Amino acid sequence: MKRILRRADDVLRGRSASNPWGLVLTCGLAYGAVMGLYEGRAWQVIFSSIKVPLLLLATFALSLPSYFVINTLMGVRSDFPEAVRAIVVSEATLTIILASLAPLTLFWYASSTGYHAAILFNGAMFAGSSLAAQIVLVRGYRPLIARSSRHRILLWTWMIIHAFVGIQMGWSLRPFIGSSGVPTQFFRRGGDENAYLLIGRMILGSWSD
Amino acid sequence: MVRWWKALDRVLRGEATKVSALRSGKVDLPVAGIVVLLLILAMLYGTCMGTFAILKGGEPSYQQVLASTLKVPALFFLTLVVTFPSLYVFNALVGSRLSIGAVLRLLLAAMAVTISVLASFGPITAFFSASTNTYAFMILLNVLVFAVSGTLGLLFLLRTLQRLNVAMREPVPTPAEEHVGVDKQGGERPATPSPLEPLEEEVLGRHVLILFQCWILLFGLVGAQMSWVLRPFVGNPDQPFTWFRPRQSNFFEAFFSALASLLS
After folding, report:
1. Partner of B63 at 20 to 30 A CA spacing, among A44, A65, A97, A129?
2. pLDDT in tens, chain B (264 residues)
3. How crowded is the C-beta side of A193, counted as CA atoms within 13 Å?
4. Are B136 and B258 in contact (CB under 8 A)?
5. Chain B contact for A185, CB < 8 A?
6. Is A46 on the interface with B (CB under 8 A)?
7. Alpha-carbon Rg of chain A, whole angstroms?
8. Which positions in chain B touch A75 (Cβ < 8 Å)?
């Protein structure tokens, strides 16, 4: 426990941390478990604690090949290991922030019962942590950008690809919280709808009202 | 095989298209090997594109996966076959010094960039195929991926053309000229050149450049329409599998109707 805390502290303060993936796993598991506690169903806790690290790992794995080719094309292949390291550390930061917000989520669950409010609350936690983790990503990229300004474009490219895949990944891996009245399951069957289409239709629907 | 991947890697890193490497007047790459690799990579993306047909609709259509796997490489190479002769003839007409082999290698290198980017987006396309139900969304996503890869490839083509011009005019380029970018910590650091980066001095054969710009437009139009002729790539889950659909409408009309169906 003490070792994990020290490693987390190293990541947050920008010292080099060994094994950031371990942090992604442990902190992601921790927040996932808390997230699944909404109705106190044991299986939902287990599923959600698996799904949070899975969400991050799968998004990372899917976005990496295109980022690798684009980095090569921009002529900065030699900096790629360093760039990946900055990205992994920022993912670790994201899970550390999430874990630190877990008591807040528990408090929210304890004090309100609305399922939609719980979804919105968790969505806000994820969005806030992702934004805050960008601080670490930008910090990790600073020496790279100083070396070549092309890394600034690449950083934006990564953020766009990663967010595009991540949002849909979060949507396809649902339920994370588990609504009452629906039996607990790993994936929700049926209606594999696309997150972007749903958002688009909601926006269009709110216009036409 | 390893040698071919290395050659592809050199193209992507921009080492094959440095001014000093272009002094012979052509991009140095193993043509047959690169063609084989491009076929493999394009088939890889085709498979990713076709996964939508297995995962959606009533019966999984494995034929559609096979069809998409074969059609993506066919799309690129048929478009090249259709547009290459006119490019070469006009190229000779405007007095460019590029030989037929040099033009072919140049186009092959640009296609290597396009197809590599395309294949690298394959996992993302496959993931969206698995997690989306809407046919129109998949069409638009694929058009977007093809547009991004095509733009990068054609940008590469124009930049390489500029470099070829410089290389053929200047007999002895010093290595220092290729080093761009200065380290902020003081002292110059030889940055690796990006194949997409423009050169600062522009000594271009203006006609040749205009010709290639026209050709890029033609290539884009023929490619878009070729993709229409070869459709379906994604496979509409509401229709039975066919290798080809009857000739009707065109790419741009279909693109906008897919967009409209998403927005309605």
Report:
1. A65
2. 889 999 999 999 988 888 888 887 788 889 999 999 999 999 999 999 988 888 776 667 788 889 999 999 999 999 999 989 988 888 888 777 788 888 899 999 999 999 999 999 999 999 998 888 888 888 899 999 999 999 999 999 988 888 887 887 765 545 554 444 444 444 444 456 677 776 655 444 677 788 888 889 998 999 988 888 888 888 887 787 888 888 777 888 888 888 888 877
3. 9
4. yes
5. no
6. no
7. 18
8. 13-14, 191-197
